[in-house]
Amino acid sequence: MKYVATAAHCLVENDKGKLKNFNNIIIVAGTTKTTVSVFSLYEEHWRRIKNFYKHKFYNSIIFEHDFGIIEVNYNFITSNKIKPIRLHSLKRDDGVKVGQRCLVSGYGLKENNQSSHYLQKVCVPIVDLSLCKLFYGDEYLHPSSLCAGALGKDSCQGDSGGPLVCKGLLVGVVAWGGICGEHPGVYTRISSYTSDEHVPLEKNASEEEAVYFVPLISSFCIYVLFLINVN
After folding, report:
1. pLDDT for 107-117, tens place per residue?
2. Degrees, nearest 5: CA angle 215-165-230
3. 147 close to 184: Cβ distance less than 8 angstroms
4. Cα 56 from Cα 212, distance rounded (Å)
5. Mind telling me which residue stretches traverse the membrane in this protein (predicted)?
6. The 3-state secondary structure of 88-156, one letter per residue
7. ∠ CA 82-84-89, rounded to 5°
8. Are 119 and 223 spatial neighbours (Cβ–Cβ below 8 Å)?
């Protein structure tokens, strides 16, 4: 359990797709707040980043394949705050249906345009992709896109890479959207990457080096972080 799922745009510096330098970034699991206390250190797991990968065909201009994985230096250990979650796959009879209510969470902007130090959550309905295209057009929505949200219920800036969970399944990660709470938010559809034979990912060590991960079989959810077993 050393792999954290996120959005590719969280891993790049600019529209050209150059991967960020994460030498000073720490991945913290097992908490629902961004502040640190002496008591919380007993429950939190802190890990440094060993490697990170974005989808090889990520396109920041049209928001396609906005998916990435972070590899930490040591395994996370399960606890009462670190529980497993299944990944949505088209091979299972667990399809996400239009109108289905799902849970999105994160530390992004709230109604007052202030970010939160505590994890926020809201239930959002799945929106038909054809309806979503009325707001955003065809160019920016793809088979790997998923829309969800209702008036006043949405993810927002600062929630990127966070989880969209339906009936205990991780079905998407927060990708992008319009004005928060006015139009549906757009998510990267997890089943686009769990159902393929291989997922092409580009490693931070070299922009020309491609690595291939087999399907993401299982996952551990630590609130907004996802630890993935790669078999």
Report:
1. 989 888 888 88
2. 20
3. yes
4. 10
5. 210-230
6. CCCCCCCCCCCCCEEEEEECCECCCCCECCECEEEEEEEECHHHHHHHHCCCCCCCCEEEECECCECCC
7. 145
8. yes
